[in-house]
Each structure stands twice: as C-alpha cells, then as structure tokens.
Amino acid sequence: MALKGDRFEGEHDIRHFMNEVAERGGIATLSTAGSGAAMDQSAMLVTYAASPSGKAPIGVMLGDMVNKDLTKTHLNQHKHETQKGGKVVLLKKGFVNTNMIYPNQTPAGGDKAYVANSGYFTNVGPNSLNAGRYVGEFDTSKDEDGYAVIYVNLPNNG
Asked: What are the C-alpha distances in Å from 148 to residues 58, 74, 94, 105?
C-alpha cells in the first residue's frame, strides 16, 4: 500500500491513460500528450518515469494500475484498481500520506518535494538523483512505517 486514508483531494485530473502496472501514491509524469481537449485520446499517457529529469509532473496516482485476467477475477473497487491501459485519477492539488519516498531519504516538514525516479518523491533538488520538477512540500517527516504527508500543488493544465 502506498497511500493512507489521511488525505485531502482538492483537484483531480481524469484525462490521462496509463499503459503499465503501477502502485498508487507516486507522482506520474507526462509520457505523450494529445491535442485539443484530449479527454478520450489514447495519446494522453502518463508514466512513472525512470528518469524524470525534464519531464512534466501531472499528478499523484490515486488508484492502482493492474494487469488482471478479468475473466477469472474482478477489479477491486475499494482500491480504485484500473486495468492497465485505462484512465487514471490524478491528484493535482491537495495532500496525501504516502510511502512513495525515494529510498534512504529523510525529508523534514517544510522541505520542497520533487519528482524522483520511478514515481518517487524526493526532497533533493533537481540536480541530484535525476530528480525532476517541484511538485509541492513535505508537511511531515517520515513515520516509523516510512509514510509522510506531502502537499501537492501542480498547475491545472486542463
């Protein structure tokens, strides 16, 4: 699990698709963009970028992307599971309590939050870890389980 229930969802984005298996709680970056309103264009793709340097952060994943045989099982609606290739719900503004913090990082409350490799958050600026753009601020340090509250404030590009 990468998100705890303690969160505030102020603004969402539901225009993007994801073609990979991913756990909720990380920061998704733009892979390819559509044109115009692009509400149902398959070109509107996000990813957990292996190297987010220069990539545009779009939002925090609020559901899991799974690859299940839907003839044998169903999607878990309580976890907001979505089949790989489907639309994702991304948090643009609000706060989340997540453990998707780059390994061996010790952020403190008030530190700036950036997107790091593979959808992780980091408090280390863009010149380290191939870190990408600013996405918000850490409100707390990590607890004993590795979770921290992060305020997310991404521009509304819609």
From this structure: 20, 31, 14, 11
